[in-house]
Amino acid sequence: MISFIKQIKIYFVFLLINFGQTSADDYYLGGMFTQHYRDGAYAEWGKYSRLGAKIALKHINDEDRLDGDKILMPDENIIDYHCWNENVELMIESLIRKNVLAIIGAECSDPAVIMANTSSKANIPIISYGANASKLSNKNKFPYFLRVITPSEKYERYLLDLASNYGANKIAFFHTTDSWGEGAAMVVMDAAKKKNIRIVKTFSFPRDASQEHIDRLVRELKEIDLKHIFLTSPTPDTVRFFKAINKYGFNDPGYFIYASEMILNNTPIDAIEGAIGYFSPVAGISDSKKLDYYIEAYEELTGLTADFNSANFIYSVLSYDQVILVSEAIKSTKKKNLEVTSENVMSQLRLANFQGASGEISFENGSNDRLNMPVKIMKFLGKNDKDQMSFIPIASTDAVTGRLKIITQ
Amino acid sequence: MNKLTKILYLASILFINPDKNLYSETYNLGGMYTYHYHDGRYADWGDYAREAAFLAIEEINSSDFLGERNSLQLLPENTIDYHCWPSNAAKMAETLFQNDILILTGADCSSPAVEISKIASRYKIPVISNGANASSLSSKEDFPWFIRVVTPSEEYDRYLIELAHSIGIKEIAYLYTTDAWGLGAKKVIHDSVNKRNILIKKEFGFKRDTNQETINDYVSEIISAGINNIVITGPTPDTVRVFKAIDKFNFNKKGNTIFATEMISADESIDAVNGSRGYFAPMTFLENTKELNQFKRRLSSRIDKKIDINSKAFFYGALSYDHIYTIAHAINNINSKNQMVTPHSLMENLRKVDFIGVTGRVYFSQKSNDRINMPLQIMNSHGFDESSNSVKFESVATVSPKGKLVIDHSKILLPGY
């Protein structure tokens, strides 16, 4: 029989063991990721961005980066919102009701504005890997929004720098009238002014305008002698624009076409014909150990070789980093002995400073934007022998001066 | 090309792709399935339907059901979550039709299915639905490229009124949505109550996704009018809003009855579950066969979830599984006659399919787009079940082969009990 003293000792040892253990927590994320556009066109980049997020969750949980806690994003919490505004508010509210810690994805600017407004009311962070509308920079207006990319003006203005380098002094400009399109238009107008480039003709149209409508606008170019043509619009509209360019034969030597979006692998052939040779800006990603580590998992899961020049790969890296950002914020919340709530995590998200797969991740004071993100300008070469869109970098920004450097003419 | 080059060419094809017969075909399907509703709520039945479709495709291909190593393919890029919503459903379907699909599957919600079927007629590509039961979709003349493995709404909804009549109900309040499906259901309810001399004392028609406040006002008005019986024909999210209002105003109590055309999902919010306790809903009757149990096991293992065979999600899963097999049987019919498998020949042969699926005998009316003689049952909500953490339904009535409702009164749980 065990003596009473011994029993007490055993009891205390048992108590100490249990006292030393804290229970592990599961933190749930919501996801707003596009898989198809509103018109049913497949958004291939959406597949890769979900993959990037999945790899990040695997790395965080398998490697126990949160000391026993886990971040989970069940499929039920991932909504395909078709990169469109309709009912986005209700979708976000549905996710919020599931007690998510934060919502990720939110890659399209116009819907992201609605998401940011809705989540601010509930104090739930929204982290975006792709929405780059200028207006989303405003921390006061969107206190619960943050993005692992820089805003539109940091991208599109380099297209004007490039045009200037090619001797442009007058341009035609097409843009959509959604909030992102209007923001991008402001950027282009401002940058053109600074470069002494005259916007001779502006064409604006709503998102998802019909092919006939875009054809009519592009046909008007015939009446004006402009060789440099700019477009800022989401991908489906960009594709329709290139179809029109092809139809009216504007993709001829002597013309320069600049567009804010990179076209995707499933682009129809007439749009590809119209797009050959056009220029587009994209986040610049450089070699690093973190990127190599990501690539290892990416290549294993996809069976593909990582292509630094493909929009799909770049989006997947940015999406990976948005999840790593959440885990870094949870880590620092815990380190400061704060409760892991959406409010506390939001504060820590803004203070983050770490090396992600896409480079250093930190945020501008007073804004929702990532700091010092390099930008590359890509040139479209057409379809390669693997049926994929082929882009090559022709210019990149200097990390120190922020100026555009031409890599190859 | 000389003879030797030809032989080498053919041999190289076989060497590169040894799994494929030289003449094997891959038939591309399109899919429009609901994973989330338009308001972002997860639709478990849509998830089950999509997964069951993939399961059927996998089985058809691995068992070489189509022979000659022919196979079905439903690519992720051709599978759209259309949120059970009509706006842009036609455009989405059109994009899929332009992707050279042989047939469009899913299309499980009636109002969008109407839009999808209209555009299908333009492209002359078949649409097969596992769940859209609007009356209007029966018409072969209006929708010649549409077919469904379910019977139309009137076959379901009239039995709700039969049940109401058999438990002595004389007057009801009726709530319905004004989409294509809702209006079809309204006609069925009106016809049925006329036959059974039941009075519709108050009636409210409203748009899909009408806000909670408006629905609350309707239910409050019903209570003020002293009506004890409510009949609802609306899609699930709207039905759920009515249940929430019923819970809010404490209508779910002894002496009251509730009938709705839709079963609520297993993971519904607690106020909707409480408001709906004891309500009745019609559903396909699934006979407990070896095949059904095998399907249940396989689906359960695929989705890594326990399955309740009386859940709405499982019914939709089973119907979806059978709608893919319907395509496979039609393709086999065409191939057995050495004809080309085209959208046109497929549409013709879909109408002639007759096989025993997991949901029973699958065969179609030659005068309409409907599955015929589909066994039906009435489910009764027994409220929240703690052990499974979900809503529990019991089957309380079945429809005999002669179309008579056979009720098991011992299983009925009414509101407030």
Shape of chain B: globular
Major sheet size, sense and barrel closure of chain A: 6 strands, parallel
Strand content of chain A: 15-25%
N-to-C terminal Cα separation of chain B, in Å? 82 Å
CATH homologous superfamily classification of the largest domain in chain A: Response regulator
CATH superfamily of the largest domain in chain B: Response regulator
Task: Summarize the helices and strands and which ones pair or pack.
The complex is a heterodimer of chains A (409) and B (417).
Chain A: H1 4-20, E1 26-32, H2 44-62, E2 70-72, E3 78-79, H3 88-97, E4 102-105, H4 109-122, E5 126-128, E6 145-147, H5 152-165, E7 170-176, H6 179-194, E8 198-205, H7 211-219, E9 228-232, H8 235-247, E10 256-259, H9 269-275, E11 279-283, H10 289-302, H11 311-335, H12 342-351, E12 353-356, E13 359-362, E14 375-383, E15 389-397, E16 404-406
Parallel strand pairs in A: 1-2, 1-3, 1-4, 4-5, 5-6, 7-8, 7-9, 9-10
Antiparallel strand pairs in A: 11-14, 12-13, 14-15, 15-16
Helix pairs in contact in A: 2-11, 3-4, 5-6, 7-8, 8-9, 11-12
Chain B: H1 3-16, E1 26-33, H2 44-62, E2 71-73, E3 79-81, H3 89-98, E4 103-106, H4 110-123, E5 127-129, E6 146-148, H5 153-166, E7 171-177, H6 180-195, E8 199-206, H7 212-224, E9 229-233, H8 236-248, E10 257-260, H9 270-276, E11 280-284, H10 290-303, H11 312-336, H12 343-350, E12 354-357, E13 360-363, E14 376-385, E15 390-399, E16 405-407
Parallel strand pairs in B: 1-2, 1-3, 1-4, 5-6, 7-8, 7-9, 9-10
Antiparallel strand pairs in B: 11-14, 12-13, 14-15, 15-16
Helix pairs in contact in B: 2-10, 2-11, 3-4, 5-6, 7-8, 8-9, 11-12
